[in-house]
Predict the structure of Acetolactate synthase large subunit.
Amino acid sequence: MNGADVLCDVLLANDVTVCFANPGTSEMHFVAALDRKPRMRCVLGLFEGVVTGAADGYARMTDRPAATLLHTGPGLANGLANMHNARRALSPMINIVGDHASYHLPLDAPLTSDIESLATPMSNWVRRIGGPDDVAPATEAAFRASLTPPGVTTLILPADAAWGEVGAVLPRKVTLSPSPAVDIDAVRTVAAAIRAAPGRVGMIVRGQAARADALAVAGQISAGSEVRLFSEVLIARMQRGRGRVAPTRIPYPIDAATALLRDIDVLVLVGAREPVAFFAYPGKPGRLVRDDCQVLTLAAHGEDLNAALEALRDELGVKPSQQTVFATGFPDEATPNGRLTEDAIALSVARKLPDDAIVCDEAVTSARRFFALSAFAAPHDYMMGTGGSIGGGIPMATGAAIACPDRKVINLEADGSGMYTVQGLWTQARENLAVVTIVFSNRTYAILHGEMRNVGVNAIGENARRMLDLDHPALDWVSLAKGMGVAAARADTCERFDALLDSALSRRGPFLIEAVI
């Protein structure tokens, strides 16, 4: 038995059964070990950003880590952007980064790099395996670190640790520490602040507090104690749809966000952080709440958020039978027709969304209306990129589809963002995943046009336009998708889009709609 076999066996003993991979020479012994482990599902990504983004999507839907397999420092570097998104989403992930044999490193071969320094900013935990005998304890430590609390871990596997022989190792299931008990003092402090500012309290929920059962409790607190319920700007995962409590998402534009929160005197955080502006803008604040707003943490990531909400409800004297407001039917709105628009796409997708679907939203500016409409859609899970690093949508949808093979995944994708990790379509085709990708083809980085206006530039010249627009030549998403094995078609009218969406939702395997707007 060699170190690579031990690593696989420890992962499998702890129910890590999926490995998203883009291996190289240093990882061949690990690849050979994976070949001997039929329980491990190995999924190839043609770019490391697809690998790490898919592991993020998988983790968000399972609350468990997948493994990634990356080739030395440059391979890791290619995957860092979506590791950043995963870290911001608080997703559990175990990155296995192969490296040169330990005795080869002093020779400074071409692929030699400082992997620890590359990994550390995008990881919650980093460790280099010391040798074959260190493989089992290091892998156990990586698994434990990925879940207590959930986050990104990176394990560096030198080639000689992978091929080195070890004695018989009996893989064991790692025992995880239970979540900390609810902090009753924090509950009482928050309850007192809510009573002291009726109607002027906001609560932000994220993580496990954004799941349907916890949202129901938060909704009872909201209705019974005049607390306004919010979500963060960028949502890692929220259970949405009819019959579920629907928090108001804090807007991305800074003026809209500060206006929404202007009359909040007390802000309660449940698994969340205080919201801040995405960027600094001249003459505008960085904090979104007033400086005199009292910001309190009920419970943090890694704590039992549901239990904390229940304790707060009880402390406030709100009954579990408290009536809450749920979204029911869609607002009365005519079915759009004629030229296709962003709003028409959002309305069509929300109305046609299948029960228990998963929505991965990286449409950036184009699908902003969808989130509000999703409150009236069939029950579903909603996810976004959380770190601001674009290129997460296609991989995230890929990982979510592998995590939940019986559920339809809808990827709302901006054309500019999609090009960062378009290779993920090939993985969807190879794995025959139930993903419908809707590309908002406006042929521009629309969000950057908005950011130019935000910094006071209202008219741009040719140089700026050439950096912000995606024309000359225009991207041909139908050809791109078909070239990677994904069936695709183009729509530029509402009628054509509706017909294609109906067809895509009824078929097996992946399908891409290029929605020209």
About this structure: The two ends are 57 Å apart (CA to CA). The mean pLDDT is 95.
